[in-house]
C-alpha cells in the first residue's frame, strides 16, 4: 500500500466540539422564566411550558415558558412604553447599543454556535462558521445604518412597535435579520422564536441585558402558533415581520388586512440550481452540496431543483452521486459532520412522506449507502431523477435533504423550467460564460440570483422573494425601509362610492357612439357584458357613458398586460421618451381636459387647469426619473460583487381615487410605467371620462399595446377581481377602507404586493405625492451575486 492508498483507507476519527459550557448554561438557567419582557425574566402568566429537545437524540433539553395572550400584551406594553425614548434617541446612541450587542455576541460566539447545533441539529461547522458570524455582522453593519438614518433616509421615521416571528431553521441568524434593522430604525420589538429552537434567543436576551439595551426595547417571548397569532393580531403593533412557511404567511396577510400594519413576509421557496453545459462541473457539485445539503436542506432558498443541460446530465449526476457517498451524516457537534439530523420527528416524517409520494409519481430516489446514527431524526441525502415538472418533488418545498433533478435542452427551456414554480426566492446559475449567466439572471423570477455560487448572504445585500415566497427584503438599504415610514401627504378619508347610476344595456344606434369603451391591449373595446354606466356632470346632467367593466374585462386586460413584452424589455431611455410624449400630447389638449374636469367635478377653470398642468408635470417628472431610479452595486466581504437591480414588479393593478381624478390616476400610473411595469388601471368611478379621454393621448404617444389598460366600472368590485387574480403581481388601491381591506385579504392567492391607502387618499397636488416613495413600490430589488477571481 502506498501512502496515497493508506491515506484514502483511513477512517475519520470523531472530532467533537466540547459542549460542557453549553450544558452548564442549560443547567443553570430557569427555563420556567424564559420570557424576556421589559428587561426582566418572567414565567408565562398561565404557567404553561413547552418542551424543546435535542434532534440528535430526542432528549429533552428544557421546558420553556409558553407565552399566553396576556404575556404578549405585557411585551407590547413594554415595547410601547420604551418606544418614544428609543426612537427619539440619537442615531449614535442606537449605533453604540447595536455595536455593543455585536461585540458581546463575539465574546460568546462559541457558546452560541454549540447551543444552536444542540437545539437545531445543524452541523457545528455551519453554526460556527456561518450562522453566528453572519448574525454578528448584521448587528455591526446595522450600527452604521442607525447613524446614517438622517443622511440616507430623509423624511422617514421609525414605524413604531414591531412584532417579529421567526422559524427554526436559522434561529439566531433570523433573529439578527429581524432585530438589527428594527433597532437601527428606532423601532422597539416583540420577537417570537420558533417553538423548536428557543435557546439561542434566550442567550441573546442575556446579551441584551449586558449590552445596555434599554428596558422594553427588545422583548423576546417564547411560544408556538398561538403566541404568534396574538402578536399578529395585537392592535398595539404597527408592523409585522414574519419568516416562515407560505401557508402561515398567507394567514398573516389575511389577518392583518385593513389593520394598517406594515408587513414583510419571507417565506418558502423551490429554488432552481441551473447548470449549463459549459459550467465547471466540479465547482457546480461543490455548490450543490452547499445548495441543497446545507442545514439538511432546511433552507428557504435551498437549491432543491437541479436543472442540468442534457449533454452533461449523465456526467454531472455521476459526480453528484460520488460526492453524496462522501457526505458524512452524524452528530451535529462533530466537526467532520456534513449532515446532521432534521429538527424534529414531525419534520422527518414529512420529508419521508414527500419522498415516498415523489417516488410514487415516477421519480427515482437514490441514496448513498450510509449507516444512520441509532437515535435522532436523520435522513439520508436523497437524489431524485426522472422527475417530471409536475412531480410533487419538483413543486413542493420539501425542506429536507432532497434534490429533484430535471434536464433542459437550451437556455429558454432552462428559464421556463426555473420559473415553473409558484415561489420566487432564489436561483443559482452555473456557467463559465458570464454573458450567458447575466443574460439568464434577469429572466429568473427570484429575488436573489447567485452566479457560480450559492447561499451567499451578507448584511449589506437585500434578501427576499416575490410571489409565494413573500414580499419585502431583509438586509441592506432595502431592509431598512421595512422598518421606516415615509412621510406621505395624507388626503381625506375616502367614503364608499354612492351608487346612483345603474348599468344600462348598450344598444346599437345613436347612444352607442356616446359610450366610451374600455382600453385593452392598445385597442378600444366594448365591455364584455355590453353594459354601460352613465356619468353625471357636476350639475347632475348626463356627461356621457362608460363601459361597465366586469371580471372578464379585467382578465382580458391582465392577459394583455402580461403579453406586453415591449414595455418591460424596453430600455429605460425608451420608456422615458414615451412618458415625455404622453406629457407632450396631454399638454396639447390641456384646455380640453381642464374643461372636462370643470364639467365633471365643478372645479373652477383655474383649479382645473392647475390639475392638468400638474398632471403634465408629474409625467415629466417620471419620464425624467425612468432612467435614474437605478439599483446599486454592493461590495460584500466576499470575492463577489452584488448587483442590486431594480426590476419591474410585473403586472400592476391600480385602483385610482375620485379625488383629483386626472392627477391621482397619473400620479399612480406614471411611476409604475416608468419602472417598466405594465398596468391595468381602474380609474375614478365617479369621473371615469377623464381616463377614457386619455385613450387618444395614449394612442398618439407610442405606448406599446398592453402597457396601459383601462377598465372603467365599479371600483370596489374591480379591485376585488384584481386582488384575486393570480397573474397580477402588484396592486395599488386608493379607495374606501372596506375596499382596501378586502383587496389585502383577497390578495393571498399569489401573495401579490398590495399598497393600499387604507381608506385614505393622498393630497395628490402636494410635491410629496411623487418621487422615490412611489418608484420604490414600482420595483423589486433583485440581488445578483457575481463572483470574481479564479
Ligand atoms: P412556520 O410557518 O410553521 O412557523 C414559523 C413561525 O411562525 C414559528 O415561530 C411559528 O411558531 C409561527 N407560527 C405558526 N403558525 C402561526 C400563526 N398562525 N400565526 C402566527 N405565527 C405562527 O414555518 P417553520 O416550519 O417554522 O419554518 C420553515 C419555513 O420557513 C419554510 O417554509 C422556509 O422556507 C421558511 N423560511 C423562509 C426564509 C426566508 O427568508 N424567506 C428563511 C427561513 C425560513
UniProtKB/TrEMBL annotation:
SUPFAM superfamilies: ALDH-like. Residues 41-487, 537-755 form the Aldehyde dehydrogenase domain. Keywords: Oxidoreductase. The active site is at 266. Belongs to the aldehyde dehydrogenase family. This is Aldehyde dehydrogenase family protein. The lineage of its organism: Bacteria, Pseudomonadati, Pseudomonadota, Alphaproteobacteria, Hyphomicrobiales.
